[in-house]
Each structure stands twice: as structure tokens, then as C-alpha cells.
């Protein structure tokens, strides 16, 4: 699989990153341990070399699956992949709790290393900004972890441009992770700025939390803590109907290439010049292999423009 230099780091990453929020379990569809472990193995076997996770993904469960899957695959598998995990956000008693406190970050990192069965984390990302704790404290803890060798690179997620620039004054921030997809372009300017300043850019929610795969054609109600209810707003009106209309424009494009809607959505995101790697979440081998086949073809410039026009028309 093709590899791209990740910002100014030495990391050569694949244009697709496996996201493991769903694999972790909480707030997404249930699956067996075997299915989830096999999904991680499938991603590595088909050449994906970047895995995104977080202690907040079901209180470390996603990290534990990754640690076990890589160990089960045999010696040397850990070194074949880059692992990005996060800090400053936890999942406690079914609730997400944010804190940039330095002592918590050190403790979270220790737990992540244990969960992942490794002694280093390639990229440690501050999951969400904490407006209360001084950045000097949060990034001071990350600098210490980097000096000790537990963390190789520092990144941030869900930071505004102002917050990112403030963070860059406190540490050598080398990566940015933000939501970006056909249904969410709110962060385009920050992503472009990061790319222009040589940060590694990884984008999440490439499938709009699944709605861009075409698997949801009727609106249903999800439980309060289901991420299709609490995190992604596309599973509610008026957005739901507008996204359905967008799928009608995507379908002929998919048909022309003989591919799935999911592949069209991922390619639209990974083909944007400021995106280094697009993260998608999927819990089964079959979905991962099917989505990864997007690398066998590309949207033409005309198709990119056609889709951009449809997004503007349907979603504004
Ligand atoms: N930094 C942050 O704050 C943040 C926030 C959100 C996400 N992320 C990261 O980004 C990753 C990706 O985002 P996401 O997982 O939230 O959303 P996503 O990738 O946009 O969509 C994931 C959803 O799409 C479904 N799906 C994937 N491929 C499919 C296919 N071929 N056919 C049908 N359904 C398919 C998945 O189903 P199954 O899971 O049932 O297979 C899942 O429900 C996360 O896993 C996480 O690593 C980071």
C-alpha cells in the first residue's frame, strides 16, 4: 500500500487509518470479541499501517483489542504499525470525562501502554482541549512522556486554530486530528493551515458515522448514549433527509466505478490535498477489506467537483 510522510515526522503512513471507536464497543453496534480482533488483523494484513484509538473508547477496551490482536498475529507485528492513542478524555461510568491535568495524563499513558501491550506510543493525541487546565501543565506532561521515550510524537484533536497555535507554543505538536467528511467540512480551514505548517493531518468520521455508506435508509431513534444520537447529528432531521439526497448523487458515481458508496465517501476525503490519512471505523474483516479497495481507484477531478457542488446544494 502507498505510504505518505506524516507531516514533518519520520512516519510513513498509509492513506487509510483504522479507527477503533466502534471496535471498542460502547455506543456502537455489538460484535463478538473474535469479530473485532479479526477486524484489526484484517486491517494489518491488508497493509493499513496506522491505527487510531483512545482510552475513552469503552474505557480502554479498544486499546486492549489492539494489544491482543497484534500479539496474536505474532512477533514483529507491533513494529509494523503506528499506533495513535489519546489522553485528557476518559470514559467513566458510561460518561465521557475531559481533563488535561498532568498527573492524569501520565497515569492514562501508563494504562494505554499496558492495554496496548507495548512500551511506546507513536502518536499521543490530546483528545479534546481542556479550557480549565493551563496548557503548560497538559503539554508539560506530554513533553515529559516524550523525553522518557513512552511517546514518540505529540498531536491534538478537536482543537480550534487558536487552541492549536497555543498548544504549539508549549510543545512540538506534530499532528492534528479533526472531523472531516462529505457531511462535515467545518474544519477545512484549520486542516489546511495545519497541512501548510507541516503537521501530519488525520481526519475522522470519513463515513459520517456510517450514514455515507448507504446502510441507513430510514430514520430510527437511537439510545441516548448511542453515538448516532449523541455525537453525529446526521441521524436526525433535517440533516438525515438531506444526506439521503446526497447519496442519490453519489450512487451513479459509485455505479460508474463499480464500487460502494463507502468507497466514494472515503476517496472524496483522502483525495483532498491537505489530508494525509483518512480514518474510517469498521468492525468486521469484510467491511475493512471492502473499504480499503477504495485505494484501487480514484475519483476524477470532474467527479470531485460534481460531489462538491452536490454537497453545497444539499447541505449548504
Ligand atoms: N478525535 C476524535 O474526537 C474522534 C471522534 C470520532 C472518531 N474518531 C476516530 O475516527 C474513527 C472513524 O470515525 P467513526 O468510527 O466515528 O465514524 P466513520 O468512520 O465515519 O463511520 C463508522 C461507521 O460506519 C460503519 N461502516 C464502516 N464501513 C462500512 C461499510 N462498508 N458498510 C456499512 N457500514 C460501514 C461502521 O459500522 P461497524 O462499526 O458496525 O462496522 C460504523 O458504524 C473512529 O473509530 C475513531 O478512531 C476520533
Q: How would you describe the overall organization of this protein?
A:
The chain is α/β, with parallel strands linked by helices and 316 residues long. The chain has one domain (4-210, 273-297): NADP-dependent oxidoreductase domain (TIM Barrel). It is built from 13 helices and twelve strands. The strands form three sheets. Strands 3-4-5-8-9-10-11-12 form an eight-stranded parallel barrel, surrounded by five helices. It has a two-stranded antiparallel sheet with strand order 1-2. Strands 6-7 form a two-stranded antiparallel sheet. A hairpin with a 6-residue loop joins strand 1 and strand 2 (12-13). The longest helix has 19 residues, at 239-257. NADP nicotinamide-adenine-dinucleotide phosphate binds next to helix 1, strand 12 and helix 12.
Ligands: NADP nicotinamide-adenine-dinucleotide phosphate
Q: By helix and strand content, what is the structural category?
A: alpha/beta
**Broad shape:** globular
Within the CATH hierarchy, at the fold level, what is the topology? Answer: TIM Barrel
What's the arrangement of strands in the largest beta sheet? 3-4-5-8-9-10-11-12
So, CATH architecture? Alpha-Beta Barrel
> In the residues, how many domains can be counted?
1
Q: Low-confidence parts lasting 5 or more residues at pLDDT below 50?
A: none
Topology pattern, helix = H, strand = E: EEEHHEHHEEEHEHEHEHEHHHEHH
Mean pLDDT, rounded to whole units? 97
Q: Count the strands?
A: 12
Q: How much is the radius of gyration in Å?
A: 19 Å
Q: Report strand %.
A: 15-25%
Describe the largest sheet.
8 strands, parallel, barrel
Question: What is the CATH class designation?
Answer: Alpha Beta
Please report the distance between the alpha carbons of the first and last residues: 35 Å
Helix content: 40-55%
**Can you identify the CATH superfamily?**
NADP-dependent oxidoreductase domain
Amino acid at each position: 500500500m502507498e505510504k505518505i510522510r506524516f507531516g514533518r515526522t519520520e512516519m510513513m503512513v498509509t492513506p487509510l487509518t483504522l479507527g477503533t471507536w466502534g471496535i471498542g464497543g460502547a455506543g456502537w453496534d455489538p460484535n463478538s470479541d473474535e469479530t473485532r480482533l479479526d477486524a484489526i488483523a484484517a486491517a494489518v494484513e491488508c497493509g493499513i499501517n496506522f491505527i487510531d484509538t483512545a482510552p475513552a473508547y469503552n474505557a480502554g477496551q479498544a486499546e486492549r483489542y489492539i494489544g491482543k490482536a497484534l500479539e496474536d498475529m505474532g512477533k514483529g507485528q507491533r513494529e509494523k504499525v503506528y499506533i495513535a492513542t489519546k489522553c485528557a478524555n476518559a470514559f467513566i461510568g458510561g460518561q465521557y470525562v475531559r481533563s488535561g491535568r498532568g498527573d492524569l495524563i501520565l497515569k492514562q499513558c501508563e494504562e494505554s501502554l499496558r492495554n496496548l501491550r507495548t512500551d511506546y506510543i507513536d502518536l499521543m493525541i490530546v483528545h479534546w482541549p481542556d479550557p480549565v487546565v493551563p496548557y503548560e501543565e497538559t503539554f508539560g506532561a506530554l513533553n515529559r512522556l516524550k523525553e522518557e521515550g513512552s511517546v514518540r510524537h505529540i498531536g491534538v484533536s478537536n482543537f480550534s486554530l487558536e487552541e492549536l497555535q497555543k498548544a504549539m507554543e508549549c510543545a512540538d505538536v506534530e499532528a492534528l486530528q479533526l472531523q472531516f467528511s462529505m457531511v462535515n467540512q467545518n474544519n477545512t480551514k484549520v486542516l489546511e493551515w495545519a497541512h501548510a505548517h507541516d503537521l501530519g493531518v488525520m481526519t475522522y468520521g470519513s463515513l459520517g458515522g456510517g450514514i455515507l455508506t448507504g446502510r441507513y435508509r430510514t430514520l430510527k431513534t437511537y439510545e441516548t448514549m448511542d453515538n448516532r444520537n449523541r455525537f453525529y447529528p446526521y441521524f436526525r432531521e433535517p440533516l438525515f433527509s438531506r444526506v439521503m439526497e446526497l447519496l442519490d448523487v453519489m450512487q451513479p458515481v459509485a455505479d460508474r466505478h463499480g464500487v460502494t458508496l463507502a468507497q466514494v465517501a472515503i476517496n472524496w476525503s483522502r483525495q483532498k490535498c491537505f489530508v494525509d490519512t483518512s480514518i474510517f471505523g469498521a468492525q468486521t474483516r469484510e467491511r475493512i477489506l471492502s473499504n480499503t479497495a477504495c485505494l484501487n481507484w480514484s475519483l476524477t477531478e470532474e467527479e470531485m467537483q460534481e460531489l462538491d457542488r452536490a454537497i453545497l446544494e444539499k447541505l449548504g
